[in-house]
Amino acid sequence: MGKFDQYAFSAQPSFNEAATREAFSHAVPLKTLVIYCYDPRAAEIPNAVATLFGDEVFPGEIILDGSGNRVASSTTIFPVIVAGGRAVDALRSITVAQHLFGIQNIVVVHHSHCGATSFTADGIIDAYEHEHHRDISKLYPRSSICITDYEVSLKHDTALIRSHDGTPGHVNIFGYFYDIDTRMLTEVVRDIRKDRSPH
User: Fold this and answer.
1) pTM of the prediction?
2) Is 64 exposed, middle or buried (CB count within 10 Å of its CB: 0-12, 13-18, 19+)?
3) Parallel/antiparallel/unpaired status of strands 172-179 and 105-111
4) Residues 164, 174: Cα–Cα separation, whole Å
5) What string of pLDDT tens digits covers the 199 residues of the chain?
6) Residue 126, SS3?
7) What is the CA radius of gyration of the chain?
8) Residues 12, 4: Cα–Cα separation, whole Å
């Protein structure tokens, strides 16, 4: 028995995967997954998306059971925080979010003055070779390593998400540019499925 098995659903003797998944689907009213950068200046992006969409809740309230255990949340937005807000790092999270909670919208946000615009694919590959003696040239698609053009990167990332097998076909996908100084979101991509809009 592992040291932390008491905290793992799948390690319990009474574990029922289908029932556990059903319980998870009701624990959080998830509607929208927001992919954005881990730059602290971008931390307000989920709030900006919630405000723009109008009926979203973030961060929401933690719901306690009768014993005071944290069992659910009222949030409708899940943040996925990755370098540059690049979709390549969020694909598994999309698949898991759909499996456990179900999602309606995926929003990719790239922000102004992002560190991902301060280097090139060749630059980081060469630096790793020189500084760490590692060849990372085959680890990631070059088109997903940095940002050279915000519109191009947002169109690339939303298309990558749409084409990925782990993305449910019914979801709406959006791409936004966020100005960290004005805190404004500008829509670059709107890929609506089945005429379902989050607005």
Assistant:
1) 0.93
2) exposed
3) parallel
4) 15
5) 689 998 999 999 999 999 999 998 889 999 999 999 999 999 999 999 999 999 899 999 999 999 999 999 999 999 999 999 999 999 999 999 999 999 999 999 999 999 999 999 999 999 999 999 999 999 999 999 999 999 999 999 999 999 999 999 999 999 999 999 999 999 999 999 975 544 4
6) helix
7) 19
8) 11
